[in-house]
Specification:
Low-confidence stretches: 529-542, 808-822
Structural class: alpha+beta
CATH class of one domain: Mainly Beta
Helix content: 25-40%
Shape: elongated
Oligomer: single chain
Radius of gyration: 43 Å
CATH topology of one domain: Neuraminidase
Largest sheet: 4 strands, mixed
CATH architecture of one domain: 6 Propeller
Length: about 800
């Protein structure tokens, strides 16, 4: 401090003082604590612990020593920051689930993947692992710089020689001031191959390196989904990697299944994961799970999630991926210290920095060996000079009064250096024998050859690269192992709510007044023709069922309204209700306009451009539009058809564009024509005429024709019949059609019609909510003009409202044109 400031108070702006102090603190944290060096991949605390263990001679071949002693030695000589900072760092370097290649050989309780804490350091023991010892190979050969320790009593290395590419192989994580690093571990074999590739071809591109180093390799194995995050991380230094547990579904006794978890994402606590799954079960978010068991033992990890009978294992697994730590995101930040400054690096930069570090180590080691060889050659040349005048040398020494006089005499008479003269004075008499003299001559020749070899290495950078490659290959041979983490080429798509829903067939009903619900298909048992059925819903007064159809919970339901608009709704979002319940108001699920009523619905799994939707209106208009035109994320609905005055959209059916269509009217007329007569149109088109209606008549149904099938018609008074479709000849669209049912006061007007096979089952539902399920086979086949037979016995004032064919999901997948339809 200058003399003129002693005893004086110097005013300083608090902003300047805070800025300067914070910068000093930040730099201390960045450089001296939180971030690894790009060369050896170690933070200062890790480097000091390893070097302290080496000084204690705790190599991989000696007995383990108490961790308390290691911590104390490190704290006393190198790292004065307390045992609470040193011991956890020591422990982590010995945990096989955190370090891909542990640098410390543990003995005792070093914690577990369940999050169990390690034992106290007075109980646990440790020594260097083989990989840890390899980090300090050649450190005694002046390969790295040393600096004074905190107390100036010792020297410590600024970096370790590190034959093992530790930064990439073991990764690193740390939070500094205003920055953080998160480098994932990698497979040693792949990292060595990438280094050797860059040594051989320094101009290699990232795509070439990624052929041998495809991505991280976590010690806990698991699965990486997709390569986009890896590509981003390697090319920019930052990226998001999706990690997923390895799980499989195994059958159990009693028809049950179990999800077996054998590998976890990196740094996921197994015990917390099991507790997390259990909490979802307790909160009844995962009703399909029966019991959870942790069967992990010495043979490996095994967590068993036992499912209840008939549970959808795929849906449960997707739920676990979405809502638990079985799928995690690893945020990669390739940040490390380069020449003392923090830098975000690309993969190629990290590899090149390590290779350059190893070149520097080999060069410094070679220079050190060359210096020692030259010193030895210098001494041997002095020996040779003395041996050439052996008697005179002995005489000179004998007549010298002191060693200093003898040394000065040798230097002056034989032109030797003081070191050569001193070495001659220290030469044992036994080395003067003829045999020993010969050995000195041979050693000199060997040293001269060694000097020439070392000088050639230093003069030829290519030879340095060859040595680096050979040493890396040696490390690979001794420590390399197979990759543990599997990289799936497919990208990790978002797990939607649909993915966690069990796939099952359901019945969906929509009433005239706009109430909707879903029920399992097996709610209704098959009954014989003519029965009364069971209550399907309890509608409010004057409400009637307008639509009933079969769907899968994985389908998207397209709801078409009489106004010609279409709305999307996933089937699983339709609320489940009891058989007698009215259901939920559809306006709570779809943003319908005032007065807008759902008149048709269609179940869709994929919006394929090769499929079509054929529509029909109450006034006999028809239109065909590609299914892909209806794919949208808009919840507010889109236009499906442009309607004429007073007309309503009533029916929509999926087709492949090559089928025949059949329409039936209230007064018993039907027309069959090829859909090729209806060209594909856009969503806003009005369509073309399908059938010419008589006065007071209207269309009551439209179906797609199947070969060798029958047309089943049902009247409002519960009568019906089935007629072979072959009796309906193909006509040109726009005609009046053929008679399909003789309408009388006994059977009533036509209510609905369906294309069926004898083995099909149908559901009939009345306006009062009665529902009956029956097989088609017992219904008698009759001609087109017959009145039909009784299908359902109705109460006074009740009438048939809808007819639906029960089609299972298996049948749909086996026969694509037979989709569940209203």
């Amino acid at each position: 401090m200058p003399e003129d400031t002693i005893g004086r108070i110097i005013p300083v702006a608090i902003e300047d003082e805070m800025r300067q102090s914070y910068v000093l603190y930040a730099m201390s944290v960045i450089v001296s604590r939180a971030l690894p060096d790009v060369r050896d991949g170690l933070k200062p605390s890790q480097r000091r612990i390893l070097y302290s263990m080496r000084q204690m001679n705790l190599g991989p071949g000696v007995a383990h020593r108490k961790c308390a002693g290691i911590v104390g030695h490190t704290m006393q000589h190198f790292h004065p920051h307390g045992d609470e900072a040193i011991y956890p760092t020591l422990v982590r370097m010995g945990q096989s689930w955190n370090m891909r290649y542990p640098l410390v050989g543990p003995h005792g309780n070093f914690g577990s993947i369940d999050g169990d804490p390690p034992g106290a350091m007075r109980y646990t023991e440790a020594r260097l692992s083989s990989a840890g010892a390899e980090m300090m190979a050649d450190i005694e050969r002046e390969t790295v710089d040393f600096v004074p320790t905190f107390d100036n009593l010792n020297q410590e290395p600024t970096v370790l020689p590190g034959r093992l590419p530790n930064l990439l192989c073991n990764g690193s994580s740390g939070i500094a001031v205003g920055m953080a690093t998160d480098i994932p571990p990698h497979n040693l074999n792949e990292v060595v191959d990438a280094c050797c590739l860059l040594i051989e071809n320094p101009e290699a591109e990232l795509k070439d390196v990624m052929k041998v180093l495809p991505g991280p390799d976590f010690p806990t194995a698991g699965i990486i989904l997709g390569t986009r995050g890896i590509q981003d991380a390697y090319s920019t230094g930052r990226g998001l990697i999706i990690m997923q547990a390895r799980a499989a579904v195994e059958p159990m006794e009693g028809g049950k299944n179990a999800i077996i978890i054998t590998e976890l994402p990196y740094q996921v606590n197994k015990a917390k994961l099991v507790e997390e799954i259990a909490s979802h079960v307790r909160e009844r978010k995962l009703d399909a799970v029966g019991t959870i068991r942790d069967e992990t033992d010495r043979s490996g990890m095994r967590v068993v999630v036992e499912l209840k009978r008939d549970a959808d294992a795929h849906a449960v697994l997707n739920y676990l991926y979405k809502h638990t730590a079985m799928r995690m995101t690893y945020g990669v930040i390739l940040l490390a210290l380069v020449e003392g400054a923090p830098r975000v690096l690309k993969l190629l930069d990290m590899l090149k920095h390590f290779v350059e570090h190893r070149r520097n180590i080999v060069t410094r080691r070679t220079q050190h060996e060359l210096n020692r060889a030259r010193e030895r050659a210098h001494i041997l040349e002095g020996f040779r000079a003395a041996l050439g005048h052996l008697d005179a040398v002995i005489e000179l020494i004998r007549h010298s009064n002191t060693p200093q006089q003898a040394r000065d005499g040798l230097v002056e008479r034989y032109k030797l250096s003081e070191r050569q003269a001193q070495a001659i004075l220290e030469l044992m008499l036994q080395r003067l024998t003829s045999l020993e003299q010969k050995k000195i001559q041979e050693e000199h020749q060997e040293v001269i050859k060694q000097i020439a070899e070392l000088e050639d290495v230093l003069a030829n950078p290519r030879r340095v690269s060859v040595i680096v490659t050979q040493e890396l290959q040696d490390v690979k041979r001794r420590f390399g192992d197979e990759r543990r983490t599997r990289i799936e080429p497919r990208e990790a798509g978002e797990i939607t709510a649909e993915d966690v829903i069990a796939e099952e067939d359901v019945i969906i009903t929509v009433t005239r007044d706009g109430y909707i619900k879903r029920l399992p298909v097996d709610t209704y048992r098959t009954q014989t023709r003519g029965g009364r059925g069971v209550i399907g819903l309890t509608p409010k007064e004057q409400d009637v069922v307008e639509h009933l159809f079969i769907a899968s919970t994985r389908h998207t339901i397209l709801f078409f309204t009489g106004a010609g608009k279409v709305y999307h709704l996933p089937a699983f979002e339709v609320p489940m209700a009891s058989r007698q319940a009215r259901g939920s108001a559809i306006v709570n699920l779809l943003p319908l306009s005032p007065g807008e009523i759902v008149t048709a619905a269609c179940c869709v799994r994929q919006f394929s451009p090769k499929s079509f939707l054929v529509m029909a209106t109450a006034k006999g208009m028809s239109k065909k539009t590609r299914l892909s035109d209806f794919e949208t994320r808009l919840r507010g609905g889109i236009i499906a058809i442009n309607l004429g005055s007073g007309d309503t959209l009533r029916w929509v059916r999926p087709t492949d564009g090559k089928k025949d269509l059949i329409l039936a009217t209230k007064k018993g007329m039907a027309i069959r024509f090829s859909e090729k007569q209806v060209r594909p149109m856009g969503r806003a088109a009005a369509g073309v005429r399908a059938i010419r209606l008589g006065r007071g008549d209207e269309v009551v149904g439209m179906q797609v024709v199947r070969p060798k099938a029958d047309l089943l018609v049902a009247t409002t008074k519960g009568y019906g019949k089935r007629t072979p479709l072959d009796e309906y000849r193909r006509q040109s669209r726009g005609g009046k059609g053929l008679l399909t049912l003789k309408v009388t006061d006994k059977n009533g007007p036509l209510a609905d019609m369906k294309v069926v096979d004898a083995e099909d089952e149908v559901l009939l539902i009345s306006s009062a909510g009665q529902m009956i399920r029956q097989v088609v086979g017992p219904i008698r086949r009759t001609g087109r003009s017959a009145q039909g037979v009784r299908l359902m016995r109705l109460e006074t004032g009740d009438e048939v409202a809808a007819l639906a064919v029960v089609v299972t999901r298996e049948e749909q997948e086996a026969n694509g044109e037979r989709k569940a339809s209203p």
